[in-house]
Design brief:
single chain; alpha+beta; Outer membrane efflux proteins (OEP); 2 domains; four-stranded antiparallel beta sheet; 10 helices; 4 strands; elongated
């Protein structure tokens, strides 16, 4: 048995002498990744070095994101897939080493001799039965493949790359879950503020309707201004119902993201205006994005796995050499089992090479090569999409800010126009149609300003995640 262990170690050292897999290099991208300087991709904050708690200042949003990371069912499934991939890698990696099996047994046999011609006539002086004892202990290696061509090692590398890809995929979902929770939360805040705006507008228009009714009853005006005031009120009331429906649906969507109802005891949230933050994210160098984006890292690992599978498919064209061996001790007495007199061993190699398999090996290699081509295209597309997302978010940061500035000026102007129109109507200089148009335009301007503020906040959330932000060492869930 002591001789078998050095033999097993020596055979293990001989394995993996040749690697038939393609070189593991990043493919040349179809287009050179770069950021458009027109979008001013400058900034001082590095997203990939920040957690979501550092980026989002709203305490209620922080609590909702933490709940989503702890309870979201899709994230749980992604984490479970990591465990599956890790187990598959351990299984494949274990085949690179000999599988040693220890055995031990003992038997006691009683055999009758009476009437057996081998022991003479019956009734002689020989005993009527014999008792035999046999004790065995040993260690064996069963069909261990010598990995001269790297088949086993490449299968292990493919499993390892798939495991790392699942880790990166889970992290990508982790970051996207942060972004989805934040964007949904901002929509909820906007919808709540839209309801407040619509209710305040409806209250103001109810007062206007009362005044129009008094003027109608006094014979000062006709029924037309009254009906116009009534139309303004119904528009505001319709907007309230529409926003309440949207709010209910958004809250249901948030419940799915956080894995149930929102946790109790969360602090109150901030308004859209209070969410404003002057910090600017730095886009960094294009090469840095390749390392910060987990979806790019996942695509790279999948490409590495595809190339390792090519090496395993190529190795199938070469002979497969396996070793079988065992060593052990045998004795008729348990007390003499370990004295060394009953040592026995066996050692035997075997070799196999399919001569004709109807093209199965060629087809398997063609399949592995086609999968590599697919993974190269997937990697290229993933990089392109990553840079598009960052570029879109950088453009949004630039132009949404300009829209907010313009809409704020428009809101101020429309507020003044509405004030003047109401004054002109009270003085009898203008008809109520002028007031009607002014009120509609003011309400629309206020709604657009709220919606654009929400879009700006959502764009910040998208840019943060697109640059790899949201995860920091110590965060739960990764």
């Amino acid at each position: 048995m002591n001789r078998l262990i050095p033999i097993a170690i020596a055979t293990t050292m001989l394995t993996g002498c040749v690697n038939l897999a393609p070189d593991d290099t990043r493919p040349t991208l179809a287009t050179t990744p770069a950021f458009d300087p027109a979008y001013r991709p400058d900034g001082t904050v590095v997203a990939s070095q920040m957690s979501y708690r550092e980026w989002y200042r709203d305490p209620r949003l922080q609590g909702l994101i933490a709940s989503a990371l702890a309870n979201n069912r899709d994230l749980m499934a992604a984490t479970a897939r990591i465990e599956q991939a890790r187990a598959s890698f351990r299984i494949e990696n274990s085949r690179r080493l000999p599988n040693l099996v220890a055995t031990a047994n003992g038997t006691r046999t009683r055999q009758a001799t009476a009437g057996n011609p081998a022991f003479g006539a019956a009734g002689g002086n020989l005993p009527t039965s014999f008792t035999f004892n046999r004790y065995d202990i040993g260690v064996g290696v069963s069909a261990f493949e010598l990995d001269f061509w790297g088949r086993v090692s490449n299968l292990s590398e493919a499993a390892r790359a798939s495991y790392l890809a699942s880790v990166a995929t889970q992290r990508a979902f982790y970051l996207s879950l942060i972004a989805d929770t934040a964007t949904t939360y901002f929509e909820i805040v906007e919808s709540e503020e839209q309801i407040v705006l619509a209710e305040a507008t409806a209250a103001s228009r109810r007062e206007g309707l009362k005044i129009a009714k008094l003027r109608l009853d006094a014979g000062v005006t006709s029924a037309l201004p009254y009906r116009q005031a009534e139309t303004l009120l119904t528009q505001a009331e319709q907007q309230i119902a529409s926003e309440r429906l949207a709010l209910a649906q958004l809250r249901n969507q948030l419940a799915v993201l956080v894995g149930g109802a929102a946790p109790e005891g969360l602090p109150p949230g901030l308004s859209l205006a209070a969410q404003a933050d002057e910090r600017r994210l730095a886009a960094g160098l294009p090469s840095e994005l390749l390392l910060a984006r987990p979806d790019i890292l996942a695509a790279e690992e999948q490409l590495r796995a595809a190339r390792a599978n090519i090496g395993a498919a190529r190795a199938a064209f070469f002979p497969s050499i396996s070793l079988t061996g065992n060593a052990g001790l045998t004795s008729a007495s348990l007390g003499n089992l370990f004295n060394g007199d009953g040592l026995g061993w066996s050692f035997g190699p075997s070799i196999s090479l399919p001569i004709f398999d109807f093209g199965a090996r060629e087809a398997n290699l063609d399949l592995a090569r086609a999968l590599e081509v697919e993974q190269v295209a997937t990697y290229d597309l993933t990089v392109q999409q990553a840079f598009r997302e960052v570029s879109d978010a950088l453009a949004g940061r630039e132009y949404l800010a300009q829209q907010i500035e313009t809409l704020e000026r428009a809101r101020i102007a429309q507020t003044e126009i509405a004030r003047i129109a109401r004054a002109r109507y009270r003085e009898g200089v203008a008809d109520y149609l002028e007031v009607l148009d002014a009120e509609r335009n003011l309400f629309s301007a206020e709604q657009q300003l709220l919606a654009t503020n929400r879009a700006w906040l959502q764009n910040r959330a998208t840019l943060f995640v697109s640059l790899g932000g949201g995860f920091a060492p110590g965060d739960a869930g990764v």
